[in-house]
Every structure is written in C-alpha cells, then in structure tokens.
Write a structure and sequence with these properties.
The chain is built from 14 helices and 2 strands; from the N terminus they run ααααααααβααβαααα. By secondary structure, the protein is mainly alpha-helical.
Length: 322
C-alpha cells in the first residue's frame, strides 16, 4: 500500500519550524536552571535586582532602556549587543535599529563589575541582561516570570544580522509577523511583546513619517507631536510610546492603538484592520491577560539563540571578549 500523502504539503515547512523551535526551547530548559548560581554566586540575583531598582529610581526611563537592550540582544540571547567594535568584527551597537539609541550599557557594566568582584568569571553578561529586563518590568509595575539561567556570552557580533533580524519602526504587520515567526514566536507572542512599548520613548526620526504622512492616526495626536518633531531637524527629540502612562507597565499602549494613537507606524500596524485587531482589543480591556501573555512570551524570547555548556565564554568585561 502506498504511503499516505499529506493533504496540504505547503503547511509542512511551517510545522517543521514550530517543531524545531519547540525542541530548541526544550533543550534549553533542560540545560538552564533558575538556581544556576545558587552555589557559585548566591547573591547574583539580589545584586542585579538592587542595581536595577536604583537605576530606575534615578531615571524612570531606564527600565524601558534595559528591557529594550535585552530585546535587541534576544533575537539571539548571547550578549552580543554589548560588544564594542574590534578589528575583526563590526558590532551591533551601530546597526540601524540600535544606532544612537541603546541605553543602559553603564548599568550592565556596573552590575558586571560588582559580580566580578564577588564571583569572578561566573555570571554571564547574557544572564545579567535577561534578569535585568525582568526586574525592570517588575519595578515599573508589570508582571514577573521565572528566569532560567546558565547562558554564556558570544565571542563575536554582527551588525548585518542585527540590521536584518530586528523589525524597524516603519514595519508593517506582515513584516512584524515574519520577523517574529522566523524566531519561532507566534502572533500572540509578537503582539504581547510589542506591548513593551507601554514604557519608554522614541526619537523623532523614528516617528516623523508617521505624524506627517500616515493617514491612520488621530489628527489632534499628530498635530501635538509635530510641535516637538519638525519635518527637518530635531531627530533626537523624544516622545512617549504610550502617552497615557509612559513610566508604568500596563495595557495603556493597546488602548492608545484603539484611539489611533500608536506613536510608530509599526505600533499602529497592530490595529489597522488586520489579523491582530482582536488581540489588541483583548489586551486593551484585560490588563491581566496582557501581563500573562507578555510574561510567557518573554520566557520564549529569552531562550532564542542561546550559548550553553562549552560554547562561548563568561566575559570579564561585557563590552569585550576575554
């Protein structure tokens, strides 16, 4: 008897991608542990949490900056985003999505310095980034989640990969879905993770086109933003991604999308007559659901592209390979 033929063979590549992503997460979880530093550096998590709390108290915007730093690293969670350029590679700090906008590097440096004093060559920069992102969200009123530890640090970085992998501020919905799907993240993951824009600010150069040319934007909102973002100049001027509560991690970002007040083109793309509209409405009306889905998506995000075991290294200085 001839073997059965799948009714829809076109679905197989997508299924294989999801299976590969699930297998990758399972393998990662088998090698990582919440208590990884329990014996080797028992004060590691307290040290990170204390440093993050202090940094956010001094600068509320820092919570968003540390979360963004982790996200931009975690399309491959190996602390490669922290590496300075060398003679052998051009790092990720100057890549399009990162150029002139990465913040929080000095906070990570301080944490690393403390941990190297306490537990030399033990706690990876990749784990510091991951824990600092979680602690930042919690400090600003958002959900918590268990962080599995044991990542190791990359010994190289790629500006070209950072530029091609990370979605930009002018991305449309299909761009976003494709970028996240390539990393094994679902539509729900993508929308929930986009909700990180409930905190933080964006530069004028990243929303200028939106407020001068887009039509799916509240008129009064656009007019107000033009006052701080001229058509020429002022590239670095800042505006909150969620004007209703820029320093509190909540679902206000999604309520803004319902009112056509997404700051970036890629924000409003989530609610513009497409497949993610219903999810945006759900999160706008249910903060608990948003928090739960965001936490689950962050766990998946932080397991992408890990280095473990004998791969990579534990950097002494997060900005340079050993």
């Amino acid at each position: 008897m001839a073997p059965a033929t799948p009714k829809d063979s076109s679905a197989m590549p997508g299924l294989l991608l999801l299976l590969a992503a699930a297998t990758s997460v399972a393998v990662a979880n088998a090698q990582l542990s919440e208590n990884y530093y329990g014996s080797s550096c028992p004060a590691a998590l307290l040290t990170i949490r204390t440093a993050v709390t202090t940094a956010v108290l001094l600068d509320r915007r820092m919570g968003a900056s540390l979360l963004r730093l982790h996200f931009h690293d975690c399309f491959g969670c190996d602390a490669s985003v922290l590496l300075d350029d060398t003679a052998s590679f051009t790092g990720e700090k100057g890549a399009g999505p990162n150029a002139g906008s990465l913040r929080g590097l000095e906070v990570i440096d301080k944490i690393k310095m403390l941990l190297e004093f306490m537990c030399p060559r033990t706690v990876s920069c990749a784990d510091i980034l991951t824990v600092a992102a979680r602690d930042s969200v919690v400090r600003l009123g958002g959900p918590s989640w268990a962080v599995q530890l044991g990542r190791r640090d990359a010994t190289t970085a790629s500006a070209s990969l950072a530029s091609s992998d990370l979605p930009g501020p002018n991305s449309n919905l299909n761009d976003l879905l494709t970028a996240f799907s390539k990393k094994g993240l679902s539509t729900t993951d993508m929308v929930a993770l986009s909700g990180a824009h409930t905190i933080g600010r964006a530069q004028c150069q990243n929303y200028r086109n939106r407020i001068y040319t887009d039509t799916d934007i509240d008129g009064a909102f656009a007019a107000f933003l033009r006052g701080g973002c001229p058509q020429a100049g002022g590239d670095g001027n800042l505006a909150p991604l969620d004007a209703s509560s820029p320093n509190t991690f909540d679902n206000g970002y999604f309520s803004g999308l319902l009112s056509r007040q997404g700051l970036l083109h890629s924000d409003q793309a989530l609610y513009d007559g497409g497949s993610t509209d219903d999810l945006v409405r759900t999160y706008a009306s249910n903060n608990d659901q948003f928090g739960s889905d965001f936490a689950a998506a962050m766990v998946k995000l932080s397991n992408i592209g890990l280095l473990m075991g004998s791969s990579g290294e534990i950097r002494v200085n997060c900005r340079a390979v050993n």
